[in-house]
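Dear support,

Our group has been running a series of protein-ligand predictions, and this particular one with 4'-deoxy-4'-aminopyridoxal-5'-phosphate is the one our PI (initials K.S.) wants archived with full inputs and outputs. We had some confusion internally about which version of the output was final, so please treat the block below as the authoritative record. The input we submitted was:
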Amino acid sequence: MSISELNPPLTDADLPEVYHSVESEVRSYCRSWPTTMAVAQGSWLTDVDGRRYLDFFAGAGALNYGHNNPALKKPLLDYLASDMIVHSLDMATAAKTNFLETFERLILRPRGLDYKVQFPGPTGANSVEAALKLARKVTGRESIINFTNAFHGMTLGALSVTGNSMKRAGAGIPLVHSTPMPYDNYFGGATEDFHWFERVLDDSGGGLNHPAAVIVETVQGEGGLNVARAEWLQALAELCRRRDILLIVDDVQMGCGRTGRFFSFEEAGIVPDIVTLSKSISGYGLPMALTLFRRELDVWTPGEHNGTFRGHNPAFVTATKALETYWASDAFANETEAKGRHVRDRLEAIAQNHEGVSARGRGMAQGLKFAETSQAGEVCRAAFDRGVTMETSGPRDEVVKLLPPLTTTVEDLDKGIDILAESVAATLP
Ligand code: PMP
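Confirmed final output from the archive:
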């Protein structure tokens, strides 16, 4: 018996004509999920025809606390209703003061992180650009080490440290001053991939310019849910320290509790020199980003790196409330880790039933890897027809990635995974 109701398959033609006639061909998510979404609450989306979808995508990680979270909505509505300031560049506002004080009190101080906070433009790519620029300014060096299958954003600097060849080709100019190194387990354990970097760095014949920084994701979200082991991250941090290279952890997707702790690098016990955050930092899906760095690295001169949308006060209001609601104790992180283990166990069980399928991920960023590259896309499509939104990742789109809101109940997680299991069974031979 089917555990889900199969929706009549929707196609691109089901979208309003204006998408075809006016919106650029570059559009993508409305192609994967060709329906008009109307309302959303928690882990559920409802389209204009009343079809409900369990959201295992969560705004690509921007909705860790779910859609329209009531705890955050109330202060946001109160703020707007009272004509408090909305746009303020980087002027001082009460909302910004509260955010900075709360972030310092609940996130930085308890972790012993003596970071300064920069507000770049409101996207992940903005934060990465600020991080790369600062690393170059501090060190006076230009080259950056990045990793195979990395994803850091679509602006030219961020793209230059991104692996995906299709995305890189979009730049239209040479992407320079970056050198890719093998990420953990790139050679499937056959070679100690990390040592390649150390070797060329130490070899006067290695041909590597002394880099300003290394930029790394602890789990590569877009790159196929590749997980770096804690030992690998520790060795990387140690090498950076020994060789006077700045370590940038891009926590845009894996930060804000996605892997359990607030920062994804906490588990490895490393302290990056620079950290990028965006996506779920506002907690409500409102655009906001931070670039954090060790106090001594704060060599910016006033206004040297600016931008119009660095002070979106409604985002400060929801970000502050999200920190107070979920990060005043370890309870939320513990719960996320427990949910992550549950999801992983269930994915392992699905993988065992199908040849060529394997489970991968960390915390609440989990997924299934398929042997045939078209299979992951077909599974996502089958899941959409059954009422679950999830997307693919990896260089060949070979991984089904599950990023449910961290607030999803275990019952809803199970419901979505049941549908995933059914979609896999319906897709694979
Ligand atoms: N870094 C990482 C690790 C990301 O996953 C992303 C977005 N998927 C970005 C940077 C870029 O963020 P944005 O799309 O907000 O520019």
